[in-house]
Amino acid sequence: MPQLLLHIGIPRTATSLIQSFLAKNAGRLRANGIFLGSRHPRAFAETQAIYDDGRRGEELAKSLIDRSQGAHAILLSDEDLSRRLRLAPLSDFAKHFSGVKVIVALRRQDLWLESWYLQNIKWQWDTALAKLTLRQFLDRRDQFHWIDYDLLMGRLSEFFGDNNIVPFVFEKEMMPGGPVTHFCRLLGINSIDGWTKGDNENVSLSPVYAEFLRQLPLLDFPDPIKVHLEAACLEIHKEAKDNLSPRESSPLLIEHDERQRILDSFESGNRSVARSYFSREALFLEGMPDPTSEIGRLELPPPNELMSRLVAPYVKALVKRVTK
């Protein structure tokens, strides 16, 4: 009976890049005894089935085991699993396997909030968050329960056991070779030389383009049209991002004092996780940004530049997409 490997995110920790890599190298994974359980990079359909109905979860488990053809482990990756408050269906699903390992990435909360804010503007799938200002978004941060890592790890341990949780810190120094290489090491694969690279990195918009997209009426349109509206903005951002000023391009959105307050609110829980899983006092080792660092401004260019720099290129990109 194979073991179940669950990669549950959290979101904004290179999950799209990792999933793309895994999908492109499914054959190499199988040669290393790991069966990729989804036919798509992200196992959304599979995890949804687990939560829809316990019988569907049992059927899925049997199907995965049959298709794994003797692999020692079956891997499913879906970053939204970390956001689910109900873990019982996932725990019941895991019981059909010889064991389970839950892999979860932990990103420093202030940096995650900045990235998640830009992501909600970029794709606008959550109507409650898509149009908020940064201030409004930060005021709602308590609803992002999954970045309370002490709470998250406690819930995971309750259902799966301490020894079955494999956390890693999403910081450059903690992931030698990058997140994909580090993730593979967690799978027991120490070298990926010659493997095909993933190509689905989910890059954030620069602040000026995020603000432009936030103010467009995307929510007034059905999803097929909204996809084109979003994609056109991504295209003009890609073409212009190297020529933006620091205030238009800095990934830092939160002022230094507020950043410190956010981290202070998570300090006790982070220390508890660091002690329990990493045998150290600090969970995150990267220092705070310098107080003098440029803060990205979520504001549009002055009116005399808005048309030439954003509106006209956007219309051209949109027309080009539509005429294709």
Give the secondary structure arrangement, pairings included:
Blueprint: E1 3-7, H1 15-24, H2 26-31, E2 34-36, H3 44-52, H4 54-68, E3 73-77, H5 88-94, E4 100-106, H6 109-123, H7 134-139, H8 149-160, E5 165-169, H9 179-186, H10 207-215, H11 223-240, H12 246-249, H13 256-278, H14 303-323
Parallel strand pairs: 1-3, 1-4, 2-3, 4-5
Question: Could you characterize the architecture of this molecule?
Answer:
This protein is α/β, with parallel strands linked by helices and about 325 residues long. Among the domains are: about 150 residues, Rossmann fold (3-Layer(aba) Sandwich); about 80 residues, no CATH class. The protein is built from 14 helices and five strands. It has a five-stranded parallel β-sheet with strand order 2-3-1-4-5. The radius of gyration is 21 Å and the shape is globular. The N and C termini lie far apart (about 50 Å). This is Sulfotransferase family protein. InterPro entries: P-loop_NTPase (IPR027417).
Strand percentage lies at 5-15%
Total strand segments: 5
Q: Any idea what the CATH architecture of the domain at 3-109 and 145-186 is? A: 3-Layer(aba) Sandwich
- Helix amount: 40-55%
The major sheet is characterized as: 5 strands, parallel
The H/E string reads: EHHEHHEHEHHHEHHHHHH
- Estimated radius of gyration: 21 Å
Stretches with pLDDT under 50, minimum 5 residues: none
CATH topology of the domain at 3-109 and 145-186: Rossmann fold
**The CATH top-level class label of the domain at 3-109 and 145-186:** Alpha Beta
Structural class: alpha/beta
SS element count, helices: 14
- Overall geometric form: globular
Q: Strands across the major sheet, in which order?
A: 2-3-1-4-5
Mean pLDDT: 96
How far apart are the first and last residues' alpha carbons, in Å? Answer: 49 Å
Protein name: Sulfotransferase family protein
InterPro entries: P-loop_NTPase
